[in-house]
Design brief:
single chain, 2 domains, 334 residues, 6-stranded mixed beta sheet, 9 helices, binds adenosine-5'-diphosphate, elongated, OB fold (Dihydrolipoamide Acetyltransferase, E2P), 28% helix
């Protein structure tokens, strides 16, 4: 049975439809990400789950209970935001202990639970420090410990890492996933960063314009985008019209869809038996870490390729190349 269920949820503010027909089924202990551009309704889903906002219609269930008449504080839903919102005049220990003290637990139990959480987030040594003495990443770990210590049924994370710089963000993504596995807790993360979604999630719900555009494992979403929106949003897919792809790969292909997507790294220099051939002129190449991205031109269509930068593999601008793609890497979009 699903642990968190949204059934045909919609939300409207006056004339503005913010969510329409949202259906989600999340398993206990699953790490799910809502991924989509700003304004598509991700935070609104979290606000509805936490009870901060009511849905205009539909049903929300957590652990088998309908949330309609359950107040935010009785839902046992934790929340972590981009702004850490720690109490500035309290130490790390006091910040983390705050929530369980409110539950009127005995002092020794509080000490033990807070100690465990601080260990889990790697901040045992900082327990006497004040928030202003900590880095952004450390403050966010305190906020995480403060939410986890009361053992919520579900933890909602609204862009918790967006304010941190890239390196710390990557590090915390790994830690967050490890903590979630250790506690076996259901977590729902909101992000607009597709790499972040790919690296932490069991499952991703890609959202667009108040609807779920596609759901699946990171690998399913990455390798089989269903629409042009998802193809563009989750990677740097090349999207071709039926006519363009027909010209590029020859007339011997049965084309049923109007649009097709090919990942830049699926376009190779080496042919295999079944390969489609693409002839194209190299444009500019740019280096992006270990990957070289090259723009090609063919028949008034521009597309990009990506190759690992493990040897001198740059294309010469202005030269014509024979490139190849496998038929299964040409993905029909709906
Ligand atoms: P996201 O988290 O994907 O960036 P939000 O869920 O925050 O998106 O917002 C979705 C849409 O709902 C936005 O267009 C936003 O302007 C609108 N919205 C959010 N809160 C309100 C509100 N209280 N009144 C009117 N419109 C709102």
């Amino acid at each position: 049975m699903s642990y968190v269920v949204l059934k045909d949820v919609y939300k409207q503010y006056k004339d503005t439809k913010v969510l329409s027909g949202i259906d989600m089924n999340i398993r206990d202990g699953e790490f799910v990400t809502l991924l989509g551009p700003s304004g598509c309704g991700k935070s609104t889903i979290l606000r509805i789950l936490s009870g901060l906002t009511d849905a205009t219609g539909g049903q929300v269930m957590i652990d088998g209970k309908d949330m309609k008449k359950i107040s935010p504080k009785n839902r046992r839903v934790g929340m972590v935001f981009q702004s850490y919102a720690l109490f500035p005049n309290m130490t790390v220990y006091e910040n983390v202990a705050f929530g369980i003290k409110m539950l009127k637990k005995p002092e020794n139990e509080v000490g033990e639970l807070v100690g465990k959480m601080l260990n889990l987030v790697g901040l045992q040594e900082k327990k006497e420090a004040y928030p202003h003495e900590l880095s952004g990443g450390q403050q966010q770990r305190v906020a995480l410990a403060r939410s986890l210590v009361v053992r919520p049924k579900v933890l909602l994370l609204d862009e918790p890492l967006s304010a941190l710089d890239a390196q710390i963000r990557k590090h915390l993504q790994v830690e967050l996933r490890a903590i979630q596995r250790e506690l076996d807790m259901t977590m729902i993360l909101v992000t607009h960063d597709q790499e972040e979604a790919m690296s932490v999630s069991d499952r991703i719900f890609v959202m667009n314009n108040g609807k779920i555009a596609q759901e699946g494992t990171p690998s399913e979403i990455y390798t089989h985008p269903k629409t042009e929106f998802v193809a563009n949003f989750i990677g740097r897919y090349n999207v071709f019209s039926k006519e363009q792809i027909g010209k590029l790969i020859g007339k011997n292909v049965a084309l049923s869809a109007d649009k097709y997507a090919i990942r830049p790294e699926s376009i190779h220099l080496q042919a295999q038996v079944s390969s489609y051939k693409l002839s194209a002129i190299a444009g500019d190449s740019i280096m992006n870490g270990n990957v070289i991205r090259t723009t090609f031109h063919a028949d008034n269509k521009q597309f990009t390729t990506e190759q690992l930068h493990h040897r001198a593999s740059t294309f010469e601008k202005g030269m014509e190349y024979q490139l190849f793609v496998e038929p299964e890497d040409v993905i029909a979009l709906s």
